[in-house]
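Q: Could you write out the predicted structure for this multi-component system? I'm mainly interested in how the pieces pack against one another.
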Amino acid sequence: MRLSASPLSVALLCAALAAPVGAQSPSPAAPAAPSAAAPAAPSPYATTKVTDNVYVFRAGGHQAMFIVTPEGVIATDPIAFINPQASTAYLQEIRKITPAPIKYVVYSHHHYDHIAGGKPFKEAGATFISHKSAHKRLAALQNPNIVLPDMIVEDGGSTIQLGGVRLDLLWVGNNHSDNSLVMLLPREKILFAVDWIPVGAVLFRDMADGYVPEWFAGLDRVLAMDWDRMIPGHPGPGGRLGTKDDVRALKEYMTDVSSAARQLAAEGKCLNDDAMGAVRLPKYEGWGGYNLYLRGNVARFCAYWARGI
Ligand SMILES: [Zn+2]
């Protein structure tokens, strides 16, 4: 099955299928016993309301967006990175908010750390959607923990319309993977982008599965879209959401890394780990991952400028 390029209208499922809210009664709390034990560790899970119908589920350092409508829920990225129960917790968080059916799960891209927890959502009846190249890669990998997408999005993108909400699924070229979908809520002016537009952070390690220079073109396409707030796949500083200024700052950072790597390539130093590790860009030293990953980011651009990769 394929999502057409035209809006996909989804009929309301029989409301009788949905469990009544009263069925979600919490289990009775046990009385607190006095104890000298250390306080329990804070939960790695949290759900934050962004606007009326849009939420962020966080599991450790990973995040997914979900949208609640009267006709059902559109979820994204069933995270199971910190433990296999993360996506069950995700589903439970949704169930605290609505008994409506889980209609869709959309993969931001095919990397396992964001999508390996799909089974509870599949059992709940969701239809899984990804970019066509994500489906192709996942079908070849045959990881038993990964739910294969039921529907694919072509390069031209697609739209889900459900319960009065419109969600555009947009492929803006190769960047961090060849199958990253950005998800735009035009009415809410909210964008969900995973891994390839970090907020206040450098890029991860040596940008594995990263495509240079197409990445820059994707940033320009995102900047041309009409949105105000961006939900990143990993929390920004203090958990804040992103803005277009963050996208512009990332583009500037990548441009600076690229220039430094191009210089190293011209000097024949792109196979010299010490030379790549000596690059400093003090303007960005307050960004997350700067000390850990700047070297890897430089190495990725070195591969581009010195070897055309
Ligand atoms: Zn990724």
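A: Regarding packing and overall arrangement: Residues 244-266 form the longest helix (23 residues).
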